[in-house]
Amino acid sequence: MDANGLKFWLLADEPHWHLPGEPPALEYDAQRRSLRLARQRRELTIAEDRSAAETRLESVPQARDEHGNRAWWDGEWHRILAVGVDDTPQIIYSFTEEVALTDMALGADGVLYMAVDGAVIMHDRRQRWRDAVVSADGFKAWRLSPAPGAGCWVLDRDNRRLARLSGAPISERAHKPYTPETVRPCHENANPPRLTVLDKVHWPVQEAPVALACSLTGEVVLLSWVTHGEAVLRQLGETFELSDPMTLLGTHTPYSLAWVATGRIGVLVCGETTDETPAKAKSEARVYKVDTSASAQFPSGDLYPLKQDYNFGPFIHGLDYPPHYPAFDTSHALHRLSFPFFTRQGQAFNTGLHMQLDTAEVDSVWHRLYIEASIPAGCGIRVWLTASNEVQDHINDDSLQWFEHRFGERYQQGAPSDIPVGAWMSRSSELPHHPGLLPCENEPGRKGLFTVLIQRGGLQVRNLRGRYLYIKVELSGPGNATPELYAARAYASRFSYVEHYLPKLYGEQTFAPEADAAGRATPADFLERYINNIEGLFTTIEDGIAYSDLVTRPQTVPSEALEWLSDWIGFQFEAGWSETQRRRFLENAAELYRWHGTLRGLNLALEIATEGGVSGGEIVVLEDYRLRRSFATIIGADLDDDEDPLTLGGIETGNSFVGDTLFIGDEQRREFLALFSADLDVNAAEQAAIDTFFDRLAFRVTLLVHQNVTPQDLGMIQRMAEREVPAHVLSRVLPTSAPLLAGITSLVGVDTYLTSRPQAKPARVNRSYVGRGDYVMGPATLDPRLEGVGSGVPELPSQKPIARADDVSAGFGDDFTLDGSDSEAAPGRSLVGYRWSFLNDEGDNA
Are 279 and 272 in contact (CB under 8 A)? Predict the structure, then answer.
């Protein structure tokens, strides 16, 4: 409420806006909290070639590991080659007979999955177990996509079915035979390889599934061609059912699919250009936002160019983002070019049911409109307003009369018009001492706060009256830039200076229906609007004076004045503290001074300084007298203590736990009294030992800090402890590991420092210890030259190759040729080279 008693209604968040269209031409950027033109490419310049796409669809995708090594299918020799360490290809898998391999992918578990003759072959690159062939009745594996962790998704194009491959063979290790008395499971492998076909997955008759992709987080999407229509994307839901289709607008026959980033997928298309004469053959990558709640999406307004050496193959199966596409001798990552495309125009309405602008008074006069916006050159914002005393369907009712208001430099020029144009204000917000909602600095005429007097342009009396206000916003731009609307605030009901301070003869004398007729404004209306412009300037000044107390509040004081405000209370900030930390310290200054020198005050100061380190478990503050080792079980002792950070009020008995729990809290030294009863006779030496035991733990406090805290923060914690503890108390800060923090707090059954279960890490020379959790493992790599044994190096064949060459006799000094092309490789192998040796008469190498 301003100085004149006017209230305002705010539109700023995503639920406040209704975006018409499918898909909408506007979008709400949740990160920047702004309404802007949608980043879409609606003008596509490729006429797709279906026959070329069908040909490329039959290409076998390549595979790529986390080290950048690639593997591809050599259909002529029925083998898989890999390259990475150098440019010389290496055979990593071969077949003894002709097979139909349609896809291959390396999973995160180090397994190379291959779709061969309708089945899936699992080949472990770490050689933990032998190859396994997995199949299912009535299912013909065609395309693969690795799942996070282990396994993969499998698509059957012919039978239009989807399956999940899971499990793995068990390692074959040498062991003694089990005796008949030894209890063994019914099946040695509790998780065998299996192909589970999803019965709930079905496609309509007009759809033909052609590709699938699984994201790094496990989201599965499937691409389909539609007869006489644009391609569609479906997502696999939690109940293993397909979602409703999302049409890929402008794309008909994409031949490859891959996740580009979280929430975005990319497809490859081919055809001829439509903006060149003569037309040229071209391939293109298009990226779409994955939102299956929307029925259709245009390509993202970003360019993802393909390099000239692209070999027309599908995306390469990989284990990270962005995806790679194949080139003739290498592969390239799909990167975004910094050249945005936006829609040129779009509209939005205030949502009628969720965000009604209701004054609750009939015939309220809507006074002024403020918007916080960024309006680059060539862009503009137009706001249409209408008001009514009754609820209207303003989104669908075409009979409503809207009144336009304009914002932006593009509207500042031109002939005079009855349409009001908003003015830029130098302050960040009309709200007193408010920093504004823009995440950037103000720029005159383009970025910041704009205001306009609400009026009905072109009518004789231009006051806009009604209980309900309805807003329609139109954003426009040149196609490579967009305006951004961060907030719109409408004030009502108008406080008229003319009616309150001037004689009646200056008031409006024209009323409906004449007031609603088109024409020049009446003199009284002009005077009203002229005075309101002056009022708008002085009201903001008056509001700033009326709310000057906000300048001294920690929540609202300007950031540059925080040091000045802290000097009032004699508090000194740490150099590295953020603005949020400084405001929180000032906000809790009274509480900190009240509990200064106590355990509560120390915890509060550390909680603020570390931004939740105490409540999050990264810091545990303990008075040392609570750290006495429990030497015995105290029967019947009441150890409950809500103040004890070791138990947090969770102790029900005095029994200690076996394991990481080293300490338990006691209440008023009861543990000590249980061990050394007060009625026992003790001599002076024993009494001195008891006193010394207590003295070592009295007036001391220990701060256990998680070892992941940075050295800078650790130093800050030490300084905070020295500042907050009283002079007679000694403090120490000890970095500790998560298990120790867990042990300290395990008396309540909760690990204070919550982290995800650590993954297996490879053993490192001079770093790892035997039995500490690190593993000696071969890398899951496609190129066997990257590491030694265990990295997938092919085993030596059990049979040697057979060398065959025709006998040749030649005279001294004559040339001759030896031909070894009739030689044969061992079963399962192929010849890649020939090595000639000179033999002596005994048949040995000379």
Answer: yes
Place of tokens 């009144």: 403
Residue 285 makes CB contacts below 8 A (sequence gap 6+) with: 266, 267, 268, 304, 305, 306, 325, 334
Nearest to 82 by CA among 838, 794, 755: 794
Tokens of 197: 């076909």
| Residues 294-316 as b or e (16 or more Cβ within 10 Å = b) | eebbbbbbbbbebeeebebbbbb
Q: How many CB atoms lie within 10 A of CB 188?
A: 8
Closest CA to 258 of 219, 312, 297, 229: 219
Contact 637, 669 (CB under 8 A): no
Backbone angles phi, psi at 280, to 5 degrees: -120, 145
Residues in the chain: 846
Q: What is the pLDDT of residues 695-723, one digit of tens each?
A: 677 788 888 887 667 777 788 888 888 88
pLDDT higher than 50, residue 470: yes
- With tokens 């509060």, the residue in question is 604
Spatial separation of the C-alpha atoms in residues 846 and 840, rounded to whole Å:
5
pLDDT bucket at 810, cuts 50 / 70 / 90: confident
- In the three-class reduction of DSSP (H, G, I as helix; E, B as strand; rest coil), residue 43 is classed as coil
Say whether 369 sits in a helix, a strand or coil. strand
Q: Residue 660's pLDDT is what?
A: 33
Whole-prediction pTM: 0.72
Q: What is the CA radius of gyration of the chain?
A: 38
- The bridge status of strand 34-37 relative to strand 26-29 is antiparallel
CA 491, 409, 423 angle in degrees (round to 5)?
Answer: 30
Structure tokens at 584: 């929180």
Distances (CA, A) of 723 to 62, 620, 643, 709, 726: 62, 17, 22, 20, 8
Name beta bridge partners: 405. Answer: 383
> How many CB atoms within 10 Å of residue 177?
6
